[in-house]
C-alpha cells in the first residue's frame, strides 16, 4: 500500500516536472523569437551623486514587450541564461544602450552607463572582443561604461571569470559589484580585484534606520568603500529618511524609486545636465 502511494507521488511529481520542463522550453523558444523580432527594449534608471543631486549615470534595464504586455527581466533572464540566448541578447542590450548614451554625450553631457552582465556572458569566449567592438562602433570611451556583475562571480570564480573581468578592466571599462551584501566578498578582496564600485543591496536600504545591525553594516560598507577608494552606490532608495541617512553617512551615489524610476530613453533626454527629481 505504502509503496503504491509512494509510486503515485512519484508519478504526480514526474508529470509536474514534465510540465515545467515543457513550459521552460516554450519560454526559451519564445525568447529566441522575441530577440529576432525586436520585442526587447531598454529602460534607463538614473544614478545620482548624492552630494550634488546630479544624474551621473543611467543603468540599462531590459524589458520584453510580449504581445503588448511588459515583462520584467526576473521572468526571463534565467531562461535566457539556461538556453545560452543571454549571449546574443546581452550583446544587443550592450549595443543598444551604448548607442543611446553616445548620442546623449554628444551634447556635452558627461553621463555614464551601467549594464548588467550574466556570468554566462562573461565566460563566453568572445565577450571581451564584443565589448571592445561595441565601444569602437559607438565611439564611446571605455571609462564611460560600467559593467555590473553579481558577487558570486568573484567568489566562486567559475571558469576564469575573474581573469575575463581583468581583461575587460584593461580595456578601461569600469566594474561594479551588484547586490553587494548578500554574499561574503570582503571589500578588501574586491579592491584587489580592481572593482571600481559596489552597489549596496536594496534589502539593506529597506531596513536602514529600522534595524540597528543593518544600519551599522551599511555605515561600515560606506566607510570602508571610502577608505579603499571603491565607489559606493545605494540601491532601492524609496523613502526620504533613507536618502537623508545615506547622505549623512557620506554615501557617494544613489538609485531608487524616490530618486527616479526606470524610464524610456526619451525620458532620459530631458534630464540632461539637471537634477533627477523634485524629491532630492
Ligand atoms: P539590478 O541590476 O539590481 O537592477 C535593479 C532592479 O531594482 C531593477 O529591477 C529596478 O527596476 C529595481 N529598482 C530600482 N529602484 C528600486 C526601488 O526603489 N525599489 C524597488 N523595489 N526596486 C527598485 P528590474 O528592472 O526588474 O531588474 C531586475 C534584475 O534583472 C536586475 O537587478 C538585474 O539583475 C537583472 N537585469 C535587468 N536588466 C538586465 C540586463 O540587461 N542583463 C542582465 N544580465 N540582467 C538584467
Ligand atoms: Mg544592476
Ligand atoms: Mg543584478
Ligand atoms: Mg542590484
Automatic annotation (TrEMBL):
GO terms for biological process: regulation of DNA-templated transcription. Keywords: Membrane, Transmembrane, Transmembrane helix. Residues 24-276 form the EAL domain. This is EAL domain-containing protein. It comes from Nocardiopsis alba. The chain holds residues 622 to 901 of 901 of the full protein.
Amino acid at each position: 500500500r505504502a509503496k503504491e502511494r509512494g509510486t503515485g507521488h512519484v508519478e504526480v511529481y514526474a508529470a509536474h516536472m514534465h510540465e515545467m520542463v515543457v513550459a521552460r522550453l516554450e519560454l526559451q523558444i519564445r525568447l529566441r523569437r522575441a530577440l529576432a523580432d525586436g520585442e526587447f527594449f531598454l529602460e534607463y534608471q538614473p544614478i545620482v551623486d548624492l552630494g550634488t543631486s546630479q544624474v551621473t549615470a543611467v543603468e540599462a534595464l531590459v524589458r520584453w514587450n510580449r504581445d503588448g504586455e511588459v515583462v520584467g527581466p526576473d521572468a526571463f533572464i534565467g531562461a535566457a541564461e539556461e538556453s545560452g540566448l543571454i549571449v546574443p541578447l546581452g550583446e544587443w542590450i550592450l549595443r543598444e544602450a551604448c548607442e543611446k548614451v553616445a548620442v546623449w554625450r554628444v551634447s556635452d553631457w558627461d553621463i555614464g552607463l551601467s549594464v548588467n552582465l550574466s556570468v554566462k556572458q562573461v565566460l563566453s569566449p568572445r565577450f571581451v572582443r564584443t565589448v571592445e567592438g561595441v565601444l569602437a562602433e559607438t565611439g564611446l570611451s571605455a571609462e564611460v561604461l560600467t559593467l555590473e556583475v553579481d558577487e558570486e562571480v568573484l567568489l566562486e570564480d567559475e571558469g576564469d571569470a575573474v581573469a575575463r573581468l581583468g581583461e575587460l578592466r584593461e580595456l578601461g571599462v569600469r566594474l561594479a559589484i551588484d547586490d553587494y551584501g548578500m554574499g561574503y566578498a570582503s571589500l578588501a578582496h574586491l579592491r584587489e580585484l580592481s572593482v571600481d564600485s559596489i552597489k549596496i543591496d536594496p534589502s539593506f536600504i529597506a531596513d536602514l534606520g529600522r534595524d540597528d545591525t543593518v544600519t551599522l553594516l551599511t555605515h561600515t560598507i560606506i566607510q570602508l568603500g571610502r577608505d579603499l577608494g571603491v565607489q559606493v552606490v545605494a540601491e532601492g532608495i524609496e523613502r526620504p529618511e533613507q536618502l537623508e541617512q545615506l547622505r549623512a553617512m557620506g554615501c557617494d551615489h544613489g538609485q531608487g524609486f524616490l530618486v527616479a524610476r526606470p524610464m524610456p530613453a526619451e525620458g532620459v533626454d530631458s534630464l540632461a545636465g539637471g537634477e533627477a527629481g523634485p524629491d532630492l
